[in-house]
Recover the amino acids of this structure.
C-alpha cells in the first residue's frame, strides 16, 4: 500500500468524489432538479461519504478514523437506497441504476475492507504518540 499523506490520496475518497459528481450531474440534468427534497437528500448523503472519509483521516487517530469510515459506509448505503427511488420515480434508467448501484456496493465493500485493514494495524495515529 502506498503511503497516504492526505485524504485526497485515499482511493475510497477519490471514488466517493467521482460518484458525487455523477449524482450531481443527474441532479442538474434530469427532472430530479425539481424534486428538491430527494435531490438535496441524495446530494447530502453522497457528500457525507466524502466528508466523513476526509474528516476521519484528518482526526489523526485510528479509532476515530474507523468510526468516521463506518459513518461513510452507512451514508453510501443510504445513497444506494435513494438510487432505488431515483429509478422508481423515473429519474434514471434501469441501466444507470444498475451501474450506480454496483458502484456504491463496490465502494461500501472497499470502505469495509479499509476498516478491516485498520482494525488489524497497531498504528494508532499521530494523535496518540
Amino acid at each position: 500500500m502506498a503511503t497516504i499523506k492526505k485524504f485526497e490520496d485515499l482511493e475510497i475518497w477519490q471514488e466517493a468524489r467521482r460518484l458525487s459528481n455523477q449524482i450531481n450531474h443527474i441532479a442538474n440534468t434530469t427532472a430530479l432538479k425539481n424534486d428538491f427534497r430527494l435531490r438535496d437528500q441524495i446530494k447530502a448523503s453522497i457528500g457525507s461519504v466524502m466528508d466523513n472519509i476526509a474528516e476521519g483521516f484528518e482526526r489523526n487517530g485510528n479509532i476515530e478514523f474507523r468510526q468516521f469510515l463506518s459513518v461513510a459506509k452507512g451514508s453510501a448505503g443510504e445513497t444506494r437506497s435513494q438510487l432505488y427511488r431515483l429509478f422508481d420515480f423515473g429519474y434514471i434508467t434501469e441501466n444507470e441504476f444498475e451501474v450506480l448501484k454496483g458502484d456504491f456496493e463496490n465502494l461500501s465493500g472497499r470502505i469495509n475492507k479499509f476498516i478491516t485493514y485498520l482494525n488489524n494495524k497497531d498504528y494508532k495515529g499521530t494523535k496518540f504518540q
Q: What stands out?
A: The radius of gyration is 16 Å. The chain has four helices and no strands.
